[in-house]
Design goal:
The protein contains 15 helices and 14 strands. It has helices spanning 3-17, 62-75, 83-87, 90-102, 114-128, 142-151, 163-171, 196-205, 228-231, 260-269, 271-274, 281-296, 299-318, 337-351, 380-396; strands at residues 26-28, 35-40, 43-49, 107-111, 133-137, 154-158, 179-184, 209-213, 240-244, 254-258, 330-333, 353-354, 357-358, 369-372. Helix 4 runs parallel beside helix 12 (281-296) and helix 13 (299-318) packs parallel to helix 15. Bound molecules: pyridoxal-5'-phosphate. Residues 113-115, 118, 141, 143, 184, 188, 213, 215-216, 244, 246, 254 line the site of pyridoxal-5'-phosphate.
Length: 404
């Protein structure tokens, strides 16, 4: 059997479609976000990053950096074990209390990533609740889909952000089966938001529990950074809130929050929680510092909103086609994987602008896009430079404009 050939054939197919992934090699520079060096064909070059998930630059916040250094000096690098066997640190316990407070829940549980938290929590709920049916929004993240698949529970998919379809789907499930309605608050590829209140109303009507992924919202929405559910005053209507420490909080790790019994249930039955080394204490300490900062500080959120609004307005003026949505994510639509990659390459090489092309299977074919995430540290001059570059590319490549 020629395994090399088997591997290569599939890679060749991906390349022919324009969907082969090429990672930009970055060197972040602490204190200079969103500036970073890109290791390109002609050596290292300083660029402005426009697609970071360190949405607020907290990964380079002096207090957060110091917390990580201090805790490393105090405790060393690794946690030294799983949560069950010697790996539970005081920092983990403090962070879980901080997270429970953030979402006004009784308890929280840390995981080694947001991906793992979704995979493990949905996997455990679906497999441990007898007769469970997971009712999943059609655009849910891969980590939720994999968790549901892993649980082997029955799965029903409802039309994206459509509470009426959810209502119909729930009505078809026998009343005595435990139902879990799983969805996200901010969908990261279109930047649209779920109608959370309506979804909760429908879930309540059918006695379903609600599971929300607030990964793209924690730190950024709500007066304390508790997410969209906090902003709308709906946290108490959600049974389980899931989030990440790796995006707006600028660190690493994932979590769920909910009732004491719910978190204890996942803690006790989830393989993905228990059979893996706990987060380094320094990561937990840094994350707690970041969360605390964003619980009281509004400047990062306000400034991010201002810069998002400015970029949107300029794109509209220039007729650069972008999806309108209420979030901080600005998808500029290209609609072709090869063009999308080419524009991204030119932006990097000629303009020092880094935005990753987003192609299939991350988004449906024909909806390839560049996804911009303006943050509080992008200057007005950065926005002007970006818009100038896009404008000249749209001219050079005769790309379609959007008439307002
Ligand atoms: C990034 C992401 C995750 C995974 O979080 P990580 O901490 O990066 O593993 C989960 N859900 C959604 C919607 C995401 O975009």
């Amino acid at each position: 059997m020629d395994f090399e050939k088997l591997f290569q054939n599939q890679l060749d197919d991906l390349k022919a479609e324009g969907n082969y992934r090429i990672f930009a090699e970055m060197e972040r520079k602490c204190g200079q976000h969103p500036r970073a060096a890109n290791q390109g064909p002609d050596g290292a070059k300083d660029v402005t990053v426009w697609c970071s998930n360190d949405y607020l630059g907290m990964g380079q916040h002096p207090d957060v950096v110091e917390a990580m250094i201090d805790a490393t000096r105090a405790c060393g690098t690794g946690s030294g074990g799983t949560r069950n066997i010697s790996g539970t640190a005081v920092q983990h316990v403090a962070l879980e209390a901080e997270l429970a407070d953030l979402h006004h829940k009784e308890a929280a549980l840390l995981f080694t990533s947001g991906y793992v938290s979704n995979w493990a929590a949905l996997g455990t709920l679906g497999s441990r609740l007898p007769g469970a049916v997971i009712v999943s929004d059609s655009l849910n993240h891969a980590s939720m889909i994999e968790g549901i698949r892993h649980s082997r529970a029955d799965k029903v998919i409802w039309r994206h952000n459509d509470p009426e379809d959810l209502d119909r789907k729930l009505a078809e499930i026998p009343a005595d089966r435990p139902k879990i309605v799983a969805f996200e608050s901010v969908y990261s590829m279109d930047g649209d938001m779920a109608p959370i209140a309506e979804i909760c109303d429908v879930a309540d009507k059918h006695g379903a529990m609600t599971y929300i992924d607030e990964v793209h919202a924690v730190g950024m929405y709500g007066p304390r950074g508790g997410g969209v559910a906090e902003e709308l005053g709906l946290m108490d209507r959600i049974t389980l809130i899931e989030g990440t420490l790796g995006k707006a909080f600028g660190c690493f790790g994932g979590y769920i929050t909910g009732s004491k019994a719910l978190c204890d249930f996942i803690r006790s039955f989830s393989s993905g929680f228990i059979f893996t080394t706990a987060l380094p204490p320094a990561v937990a300490a840094a994350a707690q510092t970041s969360i605390r900062h964003l619980k009281s500080s509004q400047v990062e959120r306000q400034r991010q909103r201002a810069q998002v609004a400015k970029l949107r307005k300029r794109l509209t003026q220039l007729g650069i086609p972008h999806l309108d949505n209420p979030s901080h994510i600005i998808p500029v639509m290209i609609g072709d994987p090869i063009k999308c990659r080419m524009i991204s390459d030119i932006l990097m090489q000629d303009f020092g602008i880094y935005v990753q092309p987003i192609n299939y299977p991350t988004v449906p074919k024909g909806t390839e896009r560049l996804r911009f995430t303006p943050g509080p540290l992008h200057s007005d001059a950065d926005i002007e430079h970006l818009c100038g570059a896009l404008n000249s590319l749209w001219q050079q490549c005769a790309l379609a404009r959007q008439v307002a």
